[in-house]
From TrEMBL:
InterPro entries hit by this protein: 4pyrrol_Mease, 4pyrrol_Methylase_sf, 4pyrrole_Mease_sub1, 4pyrrole_Mease_sub2, CobA/CysG_C, Siro_Cobalamin_biosynth, Uropor_MeTrfase_CS
PANTHER family (alphabetical): S-ADENOSYL-L-METHIONINE-DEPENDENT UROPORPHYRINOGEN III METHYLTRANSFERASE, CHLOROPLASTIC, SIROHEME SYNTHASE-RELATED
Entry similarity comment: Belongs to the precorrin methyltransferase family.
Keyword Transferase: yes
Source species, domain of life: Bacteria
Record EC number: 2.1.1.107
Gene name per UniProt: cobA
Protein name: Uroporphyrinogen-III C-methyltransferase
A GO biological-process term: siroheme biosynthetic process
UniProt xrefs under Gene3D superfamilies: Cobalt-precorrin-4 Transmethylase, Domain 1 (3.40.1010.10), Methyltransferase, Cobalt-precorrin-4 Transmethylase, Domain 2 (3.30.950.10)
Length: 259
């Protein structure tokens, strides 16, 4: 540990495949004194840390917070004040449902230098590698990323009434546990039951599973595959592009690799 003024890098690790991290993020991992990492970050990436780096598992499984958000803020601040180069490593992009904004605010409020290194968010990475374009000429001119979870049991602030019509493709994060009520909301607000849906579990990882169906039968699909976290729900006509691509045979390679 060094004595000079420290810094915190809030870093996105990408959607799962360790090769889908940015060059900048990899550089930050390699030079960190301390890495505080989340559950979604693959062990392969931590192998690039310096041998003497301190690795802190902030591991937040759903409903089982290993470290509270406040404890994470305190740890980031403490390590930085000790003069360390600190990496806060998160799955996907740190500012997309990653609470990176709260961490940046906590650091800024204490006058601690920080940097944000963007990452490929899972909606972008998992959909593209599954052959689902989020926009597609003539089919989808917009997409929205949406949380499917509620804040501590409250209704989420999500306007399903507007989203049912306001964005062509919907990508729903953290929605697996509430799939039935999300489907009901969309149907209630006039989204046709025939709208194509894809479920992507552990996208871009070697254990990735993808199924496609419709809004009407998505719940059955999820049950039959025993869908689990982390998973994304993609709703919209562009899901058909994946189905079309698969009609052409095996052109879409799965490119999981080692960073
Ligand atoms: N910051 C992350 C999102 C964190 S919220 C990002 O930018 O991707 C956690 C949710 O992200 C999960 O519940 C799941 O909906 C989604 N997610 C993250 N990684 C995923 C993956 N590899 N495959 C499918 N969904 C994923």
């Amino acid at each position: 540990m060094r004595a000079a003024a420290g810094i915190v890098h809030i870093v996105g690790a990408g959607p799962g495949d360790p090769e889908l991290i940015t060059v900048k993020a990899m550089r930050r991992i390699r030079s960190a004194d301390v890495i505080l990492y989340d559950r979604l970050v693959g062990a392969e990436l931590l192998a690039y840390a310096r041998p003497e780096a301190v690795l802190v598992d902030c591991g937040k499984a759903p409903g089982r917070h290993a470290m509270t958000q406040e404890a994470i803020h305190d740890a980031l601040i403490r390590y930085a004040l000790e003069g360390n180069t600190v990496v806060r490593l998160k799955g996907g992009d740190p500012f997309v449902f990653g609470r990176g904004g709260e961490e940046a605010l906590a650091l800024a409020a204490r006058g601690i230098p920080y940097e944000v290194v963007p990452g490929i968010t899972s909606a972008i990475g998992a959909a593209a590698s599954a052959g689902i374009p989020l926009t597609h000429r003539g089919v989808a001119a917009s997409f929205a990323v949406v949380t499917g979870s509620r804040r501590h049991g409250e209704e989420a602030d999500v306007r399903w009434d507007l989203l049912a019509h306001g964005a062509d493709t919907l990508v729903i994060y953290m929605g697996v546990g509430r799939l039935g009520s999300i489907r009901d909301e969309l149907l209630k607000h006039g989204k046709p039951g025939s709208t194509p849906v894809a479920l992507i579990e552990r996208g871009t990882s070697p254990s990735e599973r993808i199924v496609t169906g419709t809004l009407a039968n998505v719940q059955k699909l999820a049950e039959s595959m025993k869908l689990d976290n982390p998973a994304l729900i993609v709703v919209g006509e562009t899901v058909r592009v994946r189905e079309l691509l698969s009609l052409y045979g095996s052109g879409l390679a799965s490119g999981y690799g080692q960073a």
